[in-house]
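User: I'm putting together notes for a lab meeting next week and I want to include a structural view of one of the chains we've been expressing. I don't have a solved structure, so I'd like a prediction I can at least talk through. The sequence is below, exactly as it appears in our construct file.
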Amino acid sequence: MRAAAIILVLAGLGLALFTFLREPKDHAMNHQDSSNTVLSVGLHPSAVDYSRYPGLDEAMLTARIEAGEAALRAASFDLVSCQLPADPEAAETRLRECLSQGVFRVAMIGAGVRMAPEHTLLFERLVNALIEGAPGIRLCFNTSPETTIDALRRWVQPG
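Assistant: Thanks for the context. Below is the predicted structure for the 159-residue chain, given as structure tokens.
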């Protein structure tokens, strides 16, 4: 009797694994879309508190963002950059303006918004505005301006 129960459990696990492997609906690669229009969302360099980031200033961050955006365009991504103020209400308004510029399959939300505890409300408002303003949009996240292209490539490939 115990052996039969073990066999049934193993059979159930095998069926579940087979179904999962055959239809991996939640894997990033299956969500890729041929569209290459992306929305890059982040704090405007003038809105960053640089006291938290020794060795970084507005000019350096601006240059890094511009280099990252140039790399995206060189990789054939159609990019809309949406740089935001730190105020959640003003940022949400600006994000909605950016969303009106096209149809986006993916939005990348920058680390400066997500990783600073003082921007938690800002991050929540942006995520909710994206979901409301662009139903079905995929979100991705970078760790720096230099990793944006890798974050986007997890969800879309340039055409």
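A couple of points you could mention at the meeting. Residues 2-22 form the longest helix (21 residues). The first strand starts at residue 37 and ends at 43.

User: Perfect, that's what I needed.
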